[in-house]
Amino acid sequence: xxxxxxxxxxxxxxxxxxxxxxxxxxxxxxxxxxxxxxxxxxxxxxxxxxxxxxxxxxxxxxxxxxxxxxxxxxxxxxxxxxxxxxxxxxxxxxxxxxxxxxxxxxxxxxxxxxxxxxxxxxxxxxxxxxxxxxxxxxxxxxxxxxxxxxxxxxxxxxxxxxxxxxxxxxxxxxxxxxxxxxxxxxxxx
Length: 189
Description:
About 25% of the residues lie in helices and about 30% in strands. With about 190 residues, it is of the alpha+beta class. It has one domain: tt1808, chain A.
């Protein structure tokens, strides 16, 4: 991912800029990174995923947010915009604007060609530092492929790999199941 500036920014400077900006950006180690626009497939996957989650989260103490909700990984950053974030129980926000979530339960990222390596490695490394995070999923948009990591009681992560339209991904921490036939509905390869 390319940085939008060579200027070092404090987290406070980043937040002031980002809250006024027309285009969202993520923050890490003093640098900001623009969030790219989405493809048709990326948009459809988000709609399919949020639709499945919304119907299954009804009546549960959980809320799902789209990529408009920022997540702060540590007190000084990074700040990210996950494609979908779910929080259960008490919601903790960085301030009264309630636009920066501190305690996600599940994060889902739809992989883009330019961000897939970052989403699968670097970003997941940051997310693992969130004590509240129970599960992390990446969803490919160029083929049927969902990767699922689940935190175990010993703090290790169990990996699941799903590549068939007939499979389902169970997300125990929020009591949801994603049928890949629904996740990839209307997606053409």
